[in-house]
Specification:
It contains 17 helices and 9 strands. With about 425 residues, the chain is α/β, with parallel strands linked by helices. It has 2 domains: about 220 residues, Periplasmic binding protein-like II (D-Maltodextrin-Binding Protein, domain 2, 3-Layer(aba) Sandwich), CATH 3.40.190; about 200 residues, D-Maltodextrin-Binding Protein, domain 2. It has a 5-stranded mixed sheet. The protein has a 4-stranded mixed sheet with strand order 6-7-5-8. It starts with a helix and ends with a helix.
């Protein structure tokens, strides 16, 4: 599928940003082209913080040592900047040979035709650690054109030190107290007796995986099979109303205290008993507050939660459809290294747990104590029944921004929850329709 710059900007939701071609990272020695043992340079695009960057580049040295004809040209950026750069590179047909895929862009990139199809036909790509069932799960439209680097899960993260100081304990999992209503009551009660300046939970209603968990328990989806909004005003409104009850009871941080709906953890971590988030965040976030002990739990549960609501979120990567064919075999080797080599276990843990059972078990040997907490909860999730989960359709690149604005309209502007919910659904669906 050929696509011009204007069309792709609409797909990705980044129209109007006036992006120029960003710098492509630090070049390494080597020339592109030349298979059969000749010098090959592979461009690799990914995102994160500087700690992740150093961890990955250190691991890449192991690959280069084993493949002296190959050099890796890193194209690294912060998450939002990475997506902006990819938008420009796709429009200019200068996409990295191998690249990570932001969750909101999986189907936009697919529509743009930038995935190399039939990864399972690349002889140098070792997929033996995945089961046939997993391979089918990874496919888009029946084609193996992306692969998961890691999987994470929505969780409740809580400060065990704060609980001990209060002489309290969380409601037992599986009990009525660990329902959504039961947890709300617990958080309100905790806040009443908490030290001054401390509350039950950070206000992170915009956290996408935990919102998705709420929806799936209610028998709804974030996105449906046809590529539309998969939830209604009751699903979204019920979620936002749950947060409003906590906020009005004083059990959450204010948006100003945490610098907006996005919740700046460095400001919230020593003021809250609990936060919702992704399982893999515990390691980096716990390091910011070394005097405290943090633990993870699965999300609270509706008494009549829909069957198969549990899910894992996969971080995908792909090979560029326009890669020079002389580099494809080495790209397959490097992708295999990312998925299977022990040197990649430690850097991958910043994203989540390895997807293959073999690699997940091996990860326990190199994981920190906090990373092991993440591995255990993902391992538990993997064992649960899970109904299908659909990727974000093209046109949803800014849906999180719309949700953030919706929360601000409710909290700061006083807009009724149901009115704001309907407006959000209409706006997100309108953006999908514009590119369908």
């Amino acid at each position: 599928m050929n696509i011009d710059r204007r069309t792709f900007l609409a797909f990705s939701g980044l129209a109007g940003l006036g992006l120029g071609l960003a710098a492509c990272g630090v070049s390494q020695p080597g020339t592109s082209g030349a298979g059969g043992g000749g010098e090959v340079s592979l461009r690799y695009g990914w995102w994160g913080n500087t700690i992740r960057q150093r961890a990955y580049e250190t691991a890449f040295e192991t690959f280069i040592a084993d493949h002296p004809n190959v050099t890796v040209q890193p194209e690294f950026a912060e998450y939002a900047a990475f997506q902006e750069r990819m938008t420009t590179q796709i429009a200019g047909k200068t996409v990295p040979d191998i690249f990570w895929i932001a969750s909101a862009q999986v189907m936009s990139y697919y529509k743009a035709g930038i995935y190399h199809d039939d990864l399972d036909k690349i002889d140098t790509l070792d997929l033996s650690n995945f089961t046939p069932e997993q391979i089918e799960l990874f496919k888009i439209d029946g084609k193996l054109n992306t692969l998961p680097l890691a999987v994470t899960a929505p969780v409740v993260r809580f400060n065990e030190t704060f609980l001990a100081e209060a002489g309290a304990a969380l409601p037992e999992e599986g009990s009525a107290g660990w329902s959504w209503n039961g947890l709300a009551e617990f958080l309100i009660d905790y806040t009443k007796d908490a030290p001054e300046g401390r509350v039950g939970i950070a206000h992170n209603a915009q956290q996408d995986l935990t919102f998705e968990s709420w929806l799936r328990q209610h028998g709804q989806q974030l996105w449906d099979e046809d590529g539309n909004v998969g939830f209604d005003v009751d699903g979204l409104g019920g979620w936002l109303d749950w947060w409003e009850k906590l906020r009005k009871a004083g059990a959450t941080l204010s948006l100003s205290e945490q610098e907006g709906p996005g919740m700046e953890w460095s400001l919230a971590g020593d003021k809250t008993l609990m936060t919702f988030g992704n399982a893999n965040h515990i390691a980096d976030h716990a390091k910011m507050f070394p005097d405290y002990s943090f633990e993870l739990r699965g999300m609270p549960m509706l008494p009549d939660a829909a069957a198969g609501h549990t899910f894992g979120f996969m971080n995908r990567l792909a090979i560029y459809s326009g890669i020079d064919p002389t580099r494809l075999a080495d790209a397959g080797r490097f992708l295999s290294f990312n998925l299977n080599h022990e040197a990649m276990l430690t850097p991958t843990l910043s994203l989540g747990a390895p997807v293959s059972g073999k690699q997940l078990e091996a990860a326990f040997e190199v994981a920190s104590a906090d990373e092991q907490k993440m591995l255990r909860i993902v391992q538990h999730n993997n064992a649960q029944e899970s109904k299908p989960r659909y990727e974000a359709p093209a046109g949803t690149g800014t849906w999180r921004n719309i949700m953030t604005r919706t929360i601000e309209e409710i909290v700061l502007g006083g807009m009724p929850v149901m009115e704001a919910s309907q407006r959000m659904i209409d706006e997100v669906q309108r953006e999908i329709d514009q590119v369908s």
